[in-house]
Write a structure and sequence with these properties.
Length: 477
């Protein structure tokens, strides 16, 4: 969908259809007709009047969420028609709402048809957004900048969605590494790929063992971007389980379906660093991804195995399905060993089903040791249109991951608080000097959408990308 900003009278813009965002019916001449048709000024409400070629969509509040959902609802209707162009008037709204309109349009019009034998022809449609009549020069420059940035951000989310949606037979660690190379080339940033020889040599036995039964070689992906005058050094670490069968602690059949999405954290950090480079944010950013497939076989790692991670800590494996934390343990160590003077280190993972049980399908669990940083992450997530909430560590749950035989166990001895105990497991691999610089994001809930919500169609949502970009922008302040 092509988006143009225009600043002349809406009636002068030539478009096939007009989208009208409705917060109050009272303001409209067509009030009676719309009411008779059962239309309400509520989120996701839509009426299309074919004769006047007007699409009315409701929104409840002038917030990112409400507006993005409204425009996405309208755009889906527009896409189902043969019309080429649509227009929408934003002049009565705050100019900051442009971001939600652009992102709602580009995220809401996403579709994934790689595996459909008959593909719908991609229609060349465009949306004309009326921003301001007679806008002063500065405003229009600012507005064009919002359009440009929001387009990059939406493209990044859609790149993450494409990767996550790809079937596991077509997307294994080597494929992920190749795509990372392509992204790096496109964004003109550095890319290092390491294989199992490197993992062995660098004593990354936790990560190595998770992928040992796979026919595909595990890959450690490290992209880096450095702005000319980098203000801060930020490391993003992602869980890239291209498939999680559970390993010998095999998942039940129903729980295995969707586990192609266990690479969502890794895909999110790859897409995010691509966007950060394109946006030329003033940082040095590293993206480290552990791309691994968790499978079964005669050589598989087993419950009862003791693995030594890169930092020398020994881990008792009590469940091979708690594999993400093993991969992240080594990736966190790798990042902290390789990259000096880190200002912030964030990890992203579809780490626990417990997080989904605890906070629902829409929300990311935010964990760590720094209250202020966690709060700022949650607020950035909300500003960016993502849902997030903090989950607090505590001394009692910490005891539940103790091991009788090794330094730590990879699962807790309690069924409860599983998202937090997983986060506290990771804390063991965050070095003392980085304790307050670290945040763990459990995106298990929002990463994959099994029943469409908001502007997220079925499949991958690209969770993590928008909130991280916003979070980084706020770190600057
Ligand atoms: N990848 C899963 C977590 C997950 C579950 C993500 C559902 C998305 C949706 C993870 O590797 C896993 O299997 N975790 C186990 C941990 C348990 C064995 C302690 C879980 O959540 O059941
Ligand atoms: Zn698992
Ligand atoms: Zn997993």
């Amino acid at each position: 969908m092509k988006i143009n900003l225009v600043n002349k009278n809406i009636n002068k813009i030539k478009s096939d259809v007009e989208i009208i965002l409705v917060n109050k019916l009272d303001d409209l001449d067509e009030k009676k007709l719309l009411e008779d048709l059962g239309f309400k000024a509520a989120d996701e409400a839509l009426v299309f009047l074919p004769e006047s070629k007007k699409i009315y969509v409701g929104y409840e509040e002038e917030t990112y969420d409400s507006l993005a959902i409204a425009i996405a609802t309208a755009i889906k209707k527009f896409q189902s028609t043969k019309f080429k162009s649509a227009k929408v008037d934003l002049t009565s709204l705050d100019s900051s709402t442009l971001k939600s309109i652009v992102e709602g349009t580009l995220l809401g019009s996403y579709s994934f048809d790689k595996y459909k034998s008959t593909k719908e022809k991609k229609k060349k449609q465009e949306l004309n957004i009326l921003v301001l009549e007679d806008s002063p020069e500065l405003d229009s420059i600012e507005l064009e900048a919002i359009l440009k940035d929001s387009t990059i951000i939406s493209k990044a989310v859609n790149k993450a969605r494409d990767m996550v949606n790809t079937a596991p037979a077509d997307f294994y660690p080597e494929v992920m590494a190749d795509l990372a190379k392509d992204l790096a080339k496109d964004a003109k940033i550095d890319c290092k790929i390491k294989g199992e020889k490197f993992l062995k040599k660098n004593k990354m036995n936790a990560m190595l063992n998770v992928g040992i039964a796979s026919i595909h070689e595990s890959k450690l992906i490290h992209l880096s971007y450095k702005a000319k005058e980098a203000k801060k050094k930020i490391v993003l670490v992602g869980k890239g389980l291209t498939y999680d069968s559970g390993g010998l602690s095999l998942k039940p059949a129903d729980f295995m379906v969707t586990m192609k999405s266990d690479k969502s954290g890794g895909c999110a950090v790859l897409a995010t660093i691509w966007a950060i480079a394109k946006l030329e944010l003033p940082f040095e950013v590293h993206a480290v991804v552990g791309a691994v497939e968790n499978m079964i076989g005669g050589d598989a790692y087993k419950p009862d195995d003791i693995l030594t991670a890169k930092n020398g800590k020994t881990i008792e494996v009590r469940n091979t399905d708690a594999e993400g934390r093993l991969v992240l343990a080594d990736c966190l160590c790798y990042a902290q060993d390789e990259i000096e003077n880190i200002d912030y280190i964030f990890d992203y993972a579809t780490l626990t089903g417990a997080c989904v049980v605890g906070v629902g399908h829409y929300t990311t669990g935010v964990m760590g040791n720094n209250e202020t940083l966690k709060r700022s992450a949650v607020s950035s997530a909300h500003d960016a249109g993502e849902y997030a909430t903090t989950l607090d560590f505590n001394r009692y749950l910490k005891k539940s991951i103790k091991s009788e035989i090794a330094d730590i166990s990879n699962i807790a001895n309690t069924r409860y608080g599983g998202a937090i105990t997983a986060g506290m497991f990771l804390d063991n691999f965050v070095y003392e000097e980085n304790k307050n610089k670290w945040i763990h994001f459990d995106i298990a809930g929002p990463a994959y959408v099994e029943s469409a919500w908001g502007y997220n169609p079925f499949g991958a949502s690209g969770a993590g990308v928008r909130m991280t970009i916003e979070f980084l922008k706020n770190l600057e302040k």
